[in-house]
Amino acid sequence: MKVTLSILKADVGSVGGHICPSAEFMESVRKTVKEDGKGIIIDSFVSHNGDDVAILATHQQGINSEKIHKIAWDAFLAGTKTAKAQGLYGAGQDLLKDSFSGNVKGMGPAVAEMEFEERPDEPFLFFAADKTDPGAYSLPLYLAFADPMYNSGLLLSPKMTKGFKFTIMDVEHSDADKVIELNAPEDLYLIAALLRDGERFVVESIHSRDTGDQAAVVSTTRLHNIAGKYIGKDDPVMLVRIEGAFPNSEEVLFSFIAERTLVMKRARRSRLIPVTSDKTLQVEGPSAVRCLKFWLEEGKLTKPLDVFNDAFWGDIRQRIFMEYLQHWKELFAA
Question: pTM to 2 decimals?
Fold first, then answer.
């Protein structure tokens, strides 16, 4: 069966600064998605990463569906209404247009969508990053899909030895989507050269060169391109299909341990900290990423697995956080 995965994400209200939405806020979003999505959405999962609320939906409406985007827009409006009633911080800040015009792209919310024929076993990873920019995932994706030193499957798996096609977007080009398609491994140096400029060139999607199937998609919204001024971080979301012709979960996740997984945080660079979904950072400083693992069964979502919630990632988290604190101690001492 052909199915579409859609993530639509926005920051429209938070408790105590850029920390997290309220319980009532989250309930208003979930209620709107459930009621408006009857007969349209197969399944959905509403969560938040820091101050960003994300709607993950499965359906058969295809990408850029007006129906799906309208449901999300109305859900964000419902959340904004609750946020304003509660006096939450930044109520409605990512809704940069006054009315829905058929698609939320260019209206503030971030979008990542892919359509594919569901496999008998269809696992995927849902990433959400906070306090950072669309380029946050570029190095992990490069390592997982192009670097055999991180992913030995690129050498050993017959389904991956042909490599992957990278679609890279120039997110500073605001007139229209400006993309370039490059193949790994032949264009490895060109891919690396572009992705070194993480503020301008970011991975938008990845496809298998063996099957042609899409493996990953990243939201590429730049809020300041829409608003014409700095209004906060873009906080990208990402979908990655795994297993079969794609890397397995460990080959994707271990790329987030890379020493040079640096992301933009305001005017400074910091490490991207893998955090759990049941905890909220009570400080606004570190750039954080959460990851949930799902399986699809005829468009239905299984209960998610919080992949960063174990002792291994706890040690990684502690090490990166201490590096972050040391970085700021050195800045203050200078």
Answer: 0.90
